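This protein record is not my work; I was only asked to verify it. Would you go through it and say whether the fold makes sense for this chain? Here is the record exactly as it was handed to me.
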Amino acid sequence: MSKAFTQEEKQIIKEKLMETALNLFHDKGTKSLSIAELTRRVGIAQGSFYTFWKNKDALIIELIAYRARQKLYSTEKKFSASLTNPAEFLTDIIYTSSIDLMTKIQTQPIYKDAFKVFEATGQNEAHKIEILYQDFLTKLVSYWKQNGVIKWADQKGLMSAFIGSSVLCSQCYQFDTAYFNDVLRIYIAAIVNKYIEV
């Protein structure tokens, strides 16, 4: 039987589990990591894992959201750099994050496995990640409006740049590698410039 934790303890333990899992997944991939090893390294009973997640797939999905949240929070601290050219700032953010994700999928088992989990679990899980990006865009567009640097922005249109770039990256093998990065950037810039008016 797993120990009952206070809310504060749960938050601390959950973060330790996620950070430890990320390190182990990067070293071993998701398939070879056992819940027993993860909980042993964090110093909790194996059954306590299920206080936080129903299975390893649920942990993997939350880890991807956790990493995305960290990166978006870091980007929010750079909002002031967007004031001189909002469209270029957002294009750079989407392009850089897309290339980064594509590289990770190709080189790090956790990301490849995570996308298999997303495909297997359906739209609901992928939607959790999408909500993070929607919230990010809402904050960014509000920041631009508060600072008077845009006349309007269509957030649904801008979300399509995030979604479309992910689709393009997942199908990058269909493109000539000499052209893919340019095609991706042109696509993102065209969408962003269409849905922002400065």
About this structure: Residues 4 and 92 are 45 Å apart (CA to CA). The longest strand covers residues 152-153. The chain has a mean pLDDT of 86.
